[in-house]
Amino acid sequence: AAQPEAFNIHGHEVRCVRKDGSEFSASMSFSDVQVGGRRLFTALVMDITERKRIDRMKSEFISTVSHELRTPLTALIGSLALLKEESGPLSPTAATFIEMADKNADRLVSLVNDILEIEKIEAGMVELKMERIALGSFMEKALAMNAGYAEQHGIRYQLASPPPTVEVMADRDRLLQVLTNLLSNAAKYSPSSEVVSVRAERLDNRVKISVTDCGPGVPDEFRSRIFGKFAQADTSDTTKKGGSGLGLAISKALVEAMNGQIGYDSAVGAGATFYIVLPVA
Ligand code: ADP
Q: If you average pLDDT over every residue of the chain, what do you get?
């Protein structure tokens, strides 16, 4: 007889009710094992009230700090701009240092913005403008808008085949933001002079958009954390690649808010394919 398909659900979040009627959050995991020819199931339910409370405190702390960082940062960037414009010719060394300060201030601003953005999405405060989007022209525009970034990394984005003639239901700007994130990651992790292949295909009443690179792939042990906040497989290469580990967390939150899914397939050393699945309009 055919082997039954492996059954594995990990850390699915649910609301549970206590005997006294009060509610709490729990994490449920299911899996199956074969014991002496019999198929047995295990279910694990864990009260995660405390974990959620700590997560909330952590988010509030990060968000307060981020807001507080914004004001001095704006002043810093303004001063740097004035210094460049009004201080007359600078020595090459001074110019280099100012350039460096400027770049790092920019990085800090985008980090602070990312933190505030994800906090907003998680709090359900992002308003989505859901509309019908023709896939073909959208994909072409997305690739064209990101071509400059690809060039900086010495790679090229290529549509694997013409996208199907179909409309998806999504928020145009947010979908572009998600696709841009996947494309820029693929460019960052691809060896130069490679092609990053982009594909759009129809699966019944859904559309799958995938971005495939020939980079190092994603380590298996990173799988459970990759869509988490500040998650990076190799923290030692942060400065080299740039990034905060927030891009995929933001993408996941946005895609799910648009009734879609995000995921990836990867074998270490053999590249990665990140994909999103969206409902057809
Ligand atoms: P960032 O790129 O800013 O670090 P992301 O949330 O976009 O943040 O990505 C999180 C981590 O996932 C990256 O630091 C990297 O370790 C891994 N990752 C993302 N995309 C790829 C890819 N195409 N190939 C290999 N690893 C990737």
A: 89
Structure-token pair, residue 89: 């010719």
Helix axes 172-189, 135-152, angle to 10 degrees: 40
Question: Residue 221 has what DSSP assignment?
Answer: G
Residue 215 alpha carbon to ligand 1 centre in Å? 11
Position 224 scores a pLDDT of 86
Contact criterion met (CB below 8 Å) for 242 and 152: no
> Cα of 246 to ligand 1 centre, how many Å?
9
pLDDT digits (tens, 9 = 90+) for 160-209: 999 999 999 999 999 999 999 999 999 999 998 889 999 999 999 999 99
Ligand 1 neighbours by CB, cut-off 6 Å? 181, 185-186, 189, 213, 215-218, 226, 231-234, 243-249, 272
CA of 164 to the centre of ligand 1 (A): 28
> For ligand 1, atom 26, which residue shows the shortest CA distance?
218
| Type of residue at 99 | E
One-letter amino acid for residue 281 of the chain: A
- Residue 43 CA, ligand 1 centroid: distance in Å: 32
Task: Report yes or no: 31 and 7 within 8 Å, Cβ to Cβ.
Answer: yes
Residues of the chain short of pLDDT 70, as ranges, are 1-7, 235-242
Alpha carbon distances (Å) from 238 to 162, 233, 245: 35, 10, 9
